[in-house]
Amino acid sequence: MEQKSTTKVPDASLTQKGVVQLTDVVGNSDTLAVTQKLVQEIINSLRENINVKVHNTRKINGKMLTEDIALSAIDIGAKRPGDIYLSAHPASDLAKGEYIADGAVHTIDSTVGRALNNLSDAYKAAWGIKQNGDKINLPNLFADGRGVFMRAGLTPGVIQGDAIRNITGSLGWWNQGLFSHARGAFNGVGNNPPTSIQLKKFDGYSHYSYATFDVSRVVPTANENRPLNVSMIPIIYLGV
Fold first, then answer.
1. 63, exposed or middle or buried, with CB in 10 Å at 0-12, 13-18, 19+?
2. Following CA atoms 218, 224, 227, 229 in sequence, which dihedral angle do they give, to the nearest 10 degrees?
3. Origin, by domain of life (predicted)?
4. Which neighbouring-strand residues pair with 101?
């Protein structure tokens, strides 16, 4: 009887020919082959992902998205040149583009000078930014050497002079007694006979011989007018 011999075909791999088994799931096998349907599903999925991504020909504030880019506060609209605000950071720790609004002068062709000069004419007029020859100055929020307090107003840059609330007191006399009444900012000083105006002798109505005026008897005082405050640095943002 004639006997038939068969040769087993090996499984295909990266190093040899052979039988390939199909698969319809994504995996990491080196011996399985994906079906046409699975390939099409992968392509469709990639297309959907690409459609929701920002194309690399797009720009953000003129910067191409072909590589990693550094965005400034101006790029994302968080700040604009000329913004003025108070900073809790010391002068040695200011961020790029921040400058102390102390009236410092810069040359007109310097980075800071060009940024200042590019501000609108209305802005420069409001904040006292002036060109003098080849120099231009930052705004100065240290009027008379003192830091000013920021306050809401319809016209920017207007400095309002300091003032205090009205201080009141009263002086008066009873019968013939000189300064027998002293209240508020006035302080009566004990009498010394004779003090009565007409009788020229001490009587029961003459309490004080004269009065002093002392504001500290009514309100807290110092060598300047000021509210309760904490010191911060006035900053102008130029973005350069």
1. middle
2. -140
3. Bacteria
4. none
Using alpha carbons, list the distances in angstroms from residue 25 to 12, 13, 49, 59. Answer: 18, 18, 19, 38
Report how far residue 141's alpha carbon sits from residue 235's, in angstroms, rounded to the nearest whole number: 9
- Residue extents of the structural domains in the chain: 17-69, 83-161+232-237, 169-217
Please answer whether residues 235 and 102 qualify as being in contact, where contact means their C-beta atoms are separated by less than 8 angstroms.
no
Best-predicted range by mean pLDDT (29-38, 111-120, 148-157, 162-171): 111-120
Strand boundaries in the chain, DSSP class E: 21-23, 32-34, 59-60, 63-64, 83-87, 98-100, 105-107, 131-132, 135-137, 169-172, 181-184, 186-190, 208-213, 233-237
- In this structure, what DSSP letter does residue 37 have? H
Question: In which element (H, E) is residue 123 found?
Answer: helix 121-126
Mark 121-152 as b/e (b = at least 16 C-beta within 10 Å).
Answer: eebbebbebeeeeeebbbbbbeeeeebeeeee
DSSP lists the bridge partners of residue 140 as: 102
DSSP letter assigned to residue 24 = S
Q: How many residues are given for the chain?
A: 240
Tracing tokens 């062709």 back to the chain, one arrives at: 109
Number of other residues whose CB lies within 10 A of the CB of residue 208: 22
Query: Are the C-beta atoms of 150 and 182 separated by less than 8 Å?
Result: no
Model pLDDT for residues 69-125, shown as the tens digit of each residue: 777 776 777 788 999 999 999 999 999 999 999 999 999 999 999 999 999 999 999
Instruction: Report the distance separating Cα 21 and Cα 34, nearest Å.
Output: 9
Using CA atoms, how far apart are residues 78 and 237, in angstroms rounded to an integer?
A: 11
